[in-house]
Amino acid sequence: MKKLLLLFTLACLLTTTIAAETRVDRVIMPHEIRVGWGDMLFETLMWHNPQNIISTMPEDWTRTYQEDYRYHQHLFLEYQYRPNYWLSIGAMIDLGEVGWDQVTRNGKGAELSRDPNHYFYNISVMPTIRFTYFRHEYVNLYSGLGLGACVNGGTETNNKGQHTEVGAAINLTVLGLSANYKRWFAAVEFGGLYGLQSANKIYMAGSRMFTASVGARF
Questions:
Q1: How far apart are the first and last CA of the chain?
Q2: Which H or E run includes 118?
Q3: For residue 212, how far is the Cα from the chain centroid?
């Protein structure tokens, strides 16, 4: 009888401990905010230094080149609200910028003038939704989608003489992984950010293929 009581007591204690751990693991901290970095794979492929400079023309012949590109990478801020264990909704703003020198050279390749004050930027603003399909105290796996607007601007003008244009923006998170410690976390994602005004005017197509971010839940 004593052994049965002992086993029953141990079972109750074990059940209570497991239930308490489960409750702790399933506590929802509904608010999440994070800041992060994203790569510029698309921008580096599309805008880069000229492969060759003409040096076989007369000296009075001139040509303007875009040289010394500077890629300032994507920086973003995102807020998410989690109403339950698997769904969260929020909003994100992302900024990426590329600068370059406008260089005029003569037919022999000699530099005649250089203007370093040229750049373009893309600001993407969008609501986002995330689906978490694996949730653990220390690791989460998720996918997500964002749809919004992209503001493209800078020193250059379009065919209407405008410095700024607005188009659609889409952010796709194919796979995201966050490592959690209490309310703090670090995350990496694979996906892509796309911005375009039409099929003939694309601002981004596969930017932010990889992102890294840090944040907090509360």
A1: 48
A2: strand 111-135
A3: 8
Q: Which residues does 199 contact at the CB level (< 8 Å), separation at least 6?
A: none
Contact 40, 73 (CB under 8 A): yes
| pTM (two decimals) | 0.82
8 versus 77: the higher-pLDDT residue is 77
Give dist(CA 23, CA 157) in Å, integer. Answer: 57
- Per DSSP, the three-state class of 60 is coil
Question: Under DSSP, is residue 130 helix (H, G, I), strand (E, B) or coil?
Answer: strand
Instruction: Give yes or no for residue 123 having a pLDDT over 50.
Output: yes
Burial class (CB in 10 A: 0-12, 13-18, 19+), 60: exposed
Task: Provide the token pair at 94.
Answer: 């992302």
Average pLDDT, stretch 22-28?
A: 53
Strand pairing category for 164-181 and 31-38 = unpaired
Residue with tokens 């409750």: 23
